[in-house]
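Before we proceed, please read the two lines closing this message. Let me know whether the structure tokens fit the sequence:

…
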Amino acid sequence: MSDPTTPRSAVDVLREALAYVDSWLEYRVWKLQTPGAQEAVWFDGEIQFSTAYGVSNIETGEPLTTAHLFRLRRCSTLGAAMHSHMCFRKTGSVPR
């Protein structure tokens, strides 16, 4: 356990949170019977977390890896998420 008097960096806090996110996403892929999912988190100028869950091919059972590529079909959703993130970083709030 870390010393509570020692200040932790934002990257350290993020990595602790991502440990929970990793287990939650793995559970959700299983619970929703999703064949596979990928996740990556970019923070502080680099990829802090990148992983894949499930399979890339249901018939062969080939595991999904971070090297697999996905086509984004909902680019507007991605754009909205990026816009909200940029507004939050600039103003401290998300537009409604």
Notes: The first strand starts at residue 36 and ends at 43.
